[in-house]
Amino acid sequence: MPIRILDEDVVARIAAGEVVERPASVVKELLENSLDADASNVHIEANSGGQRLIRVSDDGTGIPANEVELAFTRHATSKLRSSDDLFSIKTLGFRGEALASIAAVSRINVVSRHRSESSGTQLKIEGGQLLQHNRAGAPEGTVISVENLFYNTPARLKFLKAENTEKRQITTIVTRYAMAYPHVRFTLMQDSREVFRSSGSGRLGDVVVQVMGLDNFKRMVEVSSEERLENGNVLRVQGYVSEPGLHRTDRSRIILFVNGRSILDAGLTHAVTQAYHTLLMTGRYPYAVLMIETPPDFVDVNVHPTKAEVRFQDANMAFVAVQRAVRRTVVDLASTQSVQMRQQPIFAPGVPLKKRWEDSGYEPAQRESSWQMDMELPLNDPGGFRRQSFDDVDEAQTAIPYGPSGPAKPRTLPMLRVVGQVGATYIVTEGPAGMYLIDQHAAHERILYEQFMENYARQETLSQLTLEAQVIHLPAAEAQLLEANFLILASLGFDLEPFGPNSYAIRSLPALLADQDPAAVVAEIVQDLERDQKPGHESIEDKIIKRVCKQAAVKAGQILSLDEMRGLIRQLERCQSPLTCPHGRPTLLHMSTDQLAREFGRMG
Ligand code: ADP
Ligand code: MG
What is the pLDDT of residues 77-105, one digit of tens each? Predict the structure, then answer.
């Protein structure tokens, strides 16, 4: 084919693909426009996961009658004049691309009335073509309805995820903006059901309660700090973070905003988790909702088509500031908790000492020295969080940093006391009936496997976007194998998008694998799929899940801190099948007190 310039409408559809990846991206763009237009009320409706209909109504400034058509033209914006403005952007939008992109791949109906005008304007646009333009009576503000999204881009349509996934994404977007704009009242209806509503009270806490639930919110503490950066700028960090007792296996509840913009930033997310260093076991992550405010010229928002990423003038400074703000909050919390605990009696009369050790999960050795340890800096001693609640009988209710979150599951192993680690591979523990030697990798695989299966059963597979979609190239046969299993992979959190012949862009992975190299992960899975190609949905699925857990589990040879080991053992104690790893190998060896005695010649 000779080289030629592409037709306008082809260019428009290609460009649209960058901004409008899925229904939730449309919701995001329309919401941002409403917020930029100073709306106090934003009402969102979505039907069939946004594919049939997305409608966003606001009571913002509206669009002047003579500009409505222009608003749907590419690179038309009222928010930016010259490239200098790019360094001081205060609005969410600035590219002038969203409306044109959405219009190119859907049927749009817009009604808008500007504040200063007495009547409104209505437009109908289909696949980028203007069909109708007339005056219309309308209240102040804007209503944009987007129907049949991607009707003219079948490839995109084909790769939309299950309706439920899209619905969840839409809810995620709306709830995030509701948190960033607590003074705006949001309502979200999906398939005519109200899914979310925020009060518009202006208090972030009120919205966090709505989004995270009251129970979780009660276990979060307020962060409010101003960090002076080396360059003299001030970076403000405000919001809520979880106490160390509240955590989960993925980073999906670390929600960050920079200057009112919801962002994905691996560096800052890491800064938040780092603030919990030694307080959370490897593989456990806190909850956080943080609003980070910087002078506009300290961040570049113009680095990503959907504006989901930002670049800081000095990423390291931003990292340090966020980490410090969160760390200080968590440290303060630790010291107040440790003071409270000091006022509690250690020995309650009438309960045999041994019984209470067992009930509390509290090791005798530590218990004896706990008074002295209280005087020390709490963060050097993560056990401080456990000590404050050692009198509680139900340990799941205590603030143990690493137990499984959620309601307590029945215990399947006796309470085991961690003695130490052997060869950076095995954990030595003591239980009521002797010694238990635990394979850390196998045990962690078991824990992750049961957690994954549980989430999966609740259709709550957690996936995490990869930061830069890596592209993997495969031999044709392997590519076919991969494609044959696309649906299963998608249901497990792998979002792979065809990217040329036998090539796939890896857009997301199961959240458990967030730390791993995406290409290596997928390559291993393809190998697994190849190895024994037993027919049947179940077995393939299970095989992939096991592989995911294996990759995510702590490895043999990894040195664990005492607290990490305790966290791991606490979780194993409540697994349904704690004795074997998902592949059927043993997780623990038991040597009974009798056996020990016999071996040492203490019997008979
Ligand atoms: P951008 O937001 O980057 O400017 P868009 O394509 O999203 O680009 O919107 C184009 C223009 O249309 C905006 O600059 C704004 O002037 C106008 N506009 C879009 N949505 C609204 C709205 N809900 N209320 C008022 N004006 C709007
Ligand atoms: Mg916009």
Answer: 887 777 776 666 777 877 778 899 999 99
